[in-house]
Amino acid sequence: MAEDPVSNVFAALADPTRRAILARLAAGDATVNELAAPFPVSLQAISKHLNVLERAGLIVRTREAQWRRCRLDPAPLRSVAEWIDQYRRHWDERYDVLDDYLRELKEKPQ
Fold first, then answer.
1. CA 98 to each of CA 89, 93, 94, 95: distance values in angstroms, whole numbers, following the listed order
2. Alpha carbon distance, N-terminus to C-terminus of the chain
3. Which of the 8 DSSP states describes residue 74?
4. pTM score, whole prediction
5. In what order do the strands lie in the sheet with 30-31?
6. CB of 35 within 8 A of CB of 50?
7. Given a cut of 70, is residue 2 above it in pLDDT?
8. pLDDT tens, residue by residue, 57-106
């Protein structure tokens, strides 16, 4: 995995299974078996996905007796949203320039 936290989060989010796991955890905590149930892959494969999510700081795993529960930790998503927001502002400014240009064209007598 990459060294910086934002890269780790993007790497974790690059896989659709991991995004689906995060979506499930957004609804509430779940055990590994509960998280694995909807996917046609082994528990080992789900554990590998959970390891990636845990290294990125997106989930926290706890142990209760023989059960390992997972909980979503959305804090790392905030730094990713801030990074993306820089580009949203850039495109908003570009659209404003385009709006101004189109308005000028519309107002020009032909």
1. 14, 9, 6, 5
2. 59
3. -
4. 0.79
5. 30-31, 67-72, 59-64
6. yes
7. no
8. 999 999 988 888 999 999 999 999 999 998 998 999 999 999 999 999 99
